[in-house]
Design goal:
By secondary structure, this protein is α+β, with helices and mostly antiparallel strands. The protein has one domain. It is about 25% helix and about 40% strand. The chain is built from one helix and four strands. Strand 1 and strand 2 form a beta hairpin. The longest helix is centred in the first third of the chain and has 16 residues. It is globular, with a radius of gyration of 13 Å.
C-alpha cells in the first residue's frame, strides 16, 4: 500500500525539521500522512535516492524499518 500526499513548502520544511530533531535526539518520529498516523522508530534506516529520466528528476528521502 502506498500513501502519498503533497505539501506546501512551509509544511514540508516543518516536517523535515521535526524529523531532523527526532533523529538527532534519538526519538521516535510521529507523522500523519493523508490521514494515516505513522510511527517511525529510532532503529529506522535513512537513505537518499536520486532518479533521472529524459523528462524529469526526483530526489527521495527514504526512511525504512522492519516491523516488530
Amino acid at each position: 500500500m502506498i500513501v502519498e500526499k503533497g505539501y506546501s513548502k512551509a509544511e514540508f520544511v516543518s516536517k523535515l525539521r521535526r524529523l531532523a530533531d527526532a533523529i538527532e535526539n534519538e526519538n521516535r518520529f510521529d507523522i500523519q500522512i493523508a490521514g494515516e498516523q505513522i510511527y517511525v522508530p529510532t532503529r529506522a534506516e535513512f537513505t537518499i535516492e536520486h532518479e533521472r529520466s529524459d523528462e524529469e528528476e526526483e530526489v527521495e528521502f527514504q526512511i525504512k524499518w522492519k516491523r516488530e
